[in-house]
Amino acid sequence: MRHRLRRVHRQVDKLLEDIIGERKRLRQKKMKDTAEDMLDVLLDAMEHPDTDVPITHDNIKAVIMDMFAGGTETSSSTIEWAIAELMKNPKEMTKVQDEVRTKMQGEASWCDIGQLSYLRLVVKETLRLHMPAPLLIPRVCKEQCRLGGYTIPAGSRVVINAWAMSRDQRYWEDAEAFRPGRFLGTSVDFKGGDFEFLPFGAGRRMCPGIEFGLAGVELCLAQLLFYFDWTLPGGMAPEDLDMSETSFGVLSVVRKEPLRLIPSIHAPLHLKY
């Protein structure tokens, strides 16, 4: 096992080295003609060591790895929860499928994702009810402070229950219900400025891969809704679908039972990326 782990580590490390090396060569030759991305920002920080927190080559590899590996399970879990909620709420399924199939112009591709406003609301509501990391990432209190009448000593580990905040009846009407339309006409967003809704955290150390993760979730979900109709097995009624949760690893929450559905083709599978 240890030998295999080391072999995989070497393979992944080489892949990351190749990605960073290729970007460095393009930057030196000034051949990169696309918009600045996360890798450029990290390389800029590494090339200016006078920053408050110096960035090393290994730090850059770690961030890239986090974005790919850390986003895989969370994205797949979000997609599974979204489909489960839509199956349990057939009217919402019909509404979002109508939007996807009307605006996707015959095929589900990246180009049309920005037009799918209701799909974005479905993803928001899914993350409100089923955020992949409901306790976010633990923090350490740098100095003693008082909050809500409690003294928090310096060095304390602080865990934020974002799951409870996103279901708080003081901020969310009918908080346990799946209602994507609740976000219509509001400014509540993923970016950490609304403390009742923090699926990606907030502040300087919020998730750096928000747009990367959302793009993948929305495209995959749009394709599943565009190309297939879905039914529950064995004549199961929507209200009987089990929505129980269980922990996965240290921080994540996933469905207790995998979602099992029967697909039927609605449109030819001509996928474009």
Automatic annotation (TrEMBL):
One of its GO terms (molecular function) is iron ion binding. It holds the Pfam family p450. Keywords: Heme, Iron, Membrane, Metal-binding, Monooxygenase, Oxidoreductase, Transmembrane, Transmembrane helix. The keyword Membrane applies. Its cofactor is heme. One of its GO terms (cellular component) is membrane. It is a single-pass membrane protein. Belongs to the cytochrome P450 family. This is Cytochrome P450.
